[in-house]
Specification:
Blueprint (H helix, E strand, L loop, with lengths): L3 H25 L2 E6 L2 E6 L2 E7 L7 E5 L29 E8 L2 E3 L8 E11 L4 E11 L5 E12 L5 E10 L6 E3 L5 E6 L23 E4 L15 E8 L2 E9 L9 E4 L4 E5 L3 H4 L10 E3 L4 E12 L7 H15 L2
Antiparallel strand pairs: 1-2, 2-3, 3-4, 5-6, 5-12, 7-8, 8-9, 9-10, 10-19, 11-18, 12-17, 13-14, 14-15, 15-19, 16-17
């Protein structure tokens, strides 16, 4: 005869399982941010999205960046060796913010002479069902150790089923006794290096003078496409192309409150994609040299805000224009 204990034991176990499984599922729901050595790992509903790398490079950066269907949206090199990827511009690491001329120092290149944007502390690291938040303080110093400025970087990652979205906000604060001067330079600001297969032009073979057309495309809010989009002003810009057989893209939205909105786009056929409000004389030869200089008074601050939309399809299929309008509408509502 079966004892009462033998009957209750499986019932108790099944009861625990009924409680535990929803709790385990809930633990993976939403945006989860966990700290690991030198980085924060970001998962959305249990799926790896990106890492915020704050050690091991001259500036913090996001890499890898994985789409909602698990595809890599950025070039892997120099973080990871993958056959078939171009090894140019070692400083093009995933997604980052930098500038080549700040008080005469470079915070863009990796030549051994560049300054460092060094992680100081996290003000906030918060997971959430709908949004996760990373708020970090960084210190900008020259190679010789001269203090230039600080920044507070806030990244908000959103829980979306069929896409990936994040806001990137950076507030740069000058020392109380010295202004900060951002030079007129094309190599600056909010940038991402897209996956190699998304390139508008393929890598040039050795001895080849002109690159062959790739399968990627660039289009901005004004309808300007591909190579012609470089140096043009627009509210948003989209870079799309094939990734492992699927048409994928990333759009960057320029926040309406940003200095000199709508911004200029330093977007190249080989995969560099940057929103740049500084390089005026580089983009427009009618501008006087130095026209793009921006100064932050001693003790003052300057804020830039951008929105990234990682999507499937081209700009039409992903309804990039509509998403931008929704983004602006939401900004207006939240500011009331």
């Amino acid at each position: 005869m079966m004892t009462l204990r033998r009957v209750l034991r499986p019932l108790a176990f099944s009861g625990w399982l009924a409680i535990a499984l929803p709790l385990l599922a809930a633990a993976k729901d939403g945006v989860q941010i966990t700290q690991q050595e030198g980085k924060l790992r970001v998962e959305i509903n249990g799926q790896h999205f990106t890492d915020y790398n704050f050690e091991g490079a001259p500036r913090p950066y996001l890499y890898p960046i994985l789409s909602h269907n698990g595809l890599g949206m950025t070039r892997n090199w120099p973080m990871k060796e993958v056959p078939g990827e171009e090894r140019d511009h070692i400083h093009h690491r995933g997604l980052w913010f930098g500038h080549r001329h700040v008080n005469g120092f470079s915070f863009w290149e990796e030549t051994g002479k560049q300054g460092t944007i060094k992680h100081t502390e996290f003000k906030e690291v918060k997971s959430g069902k709908d949004v996760g938040v990373i708020k970090a303080l960084n210190t900008w110093t020259s190679k010789e150790g001269e203090f230039v400025c600080t920044d507070e970087t806030t990244i908000r990652i959103y829980n979306r089923k069929d896409s990936r979205m994040l806001d990137y906000e950076i507030t740069i604060t000058a020392p109380k006794d010295k202004e900060v001067v951002f030079g007129d330079d094309k190599d600056a600001a909010m940038a991402i290096r897209v996956a190699e297969s998304m390139r508008v032009h393929k890598m040039r073979a050795k001895g080849q003078k002109k690159a062959d057309p790739g399968e990627g495309h660039v289009v901005n809010s004004e309808g300007v496409r591909d190579s012609e989009a470089w140096g043009k002003r627009a509210k948003w810009c989209d870079y799309h192309g094939p990734v492992e057989g699927k048409l994928m893209g990333v759009a960057i939205f320029d926040h309406p409150s940003n200095p000199r909105h709508p911004t200029w786009w330093h977007v190249r056929e080989y995969g560099l994609f940057a929103a740049n409000a500084f390089g005026l004389s580089n983009f427009d030869k009618t501008q006087e040299k130095g026209a793009g200089i921006l100064k932050v008074a001693p003790g003052g601050s300057l804020t830039f805000r951008y929105h990234f939309y990682f999507h499937e399809g081209d700009e039409q299929q992903a309804e990039v224009a509509r998403h931008y309008d929704d983004y602006v509408r939401q900004i207006r509502v939240s500011s009331k």
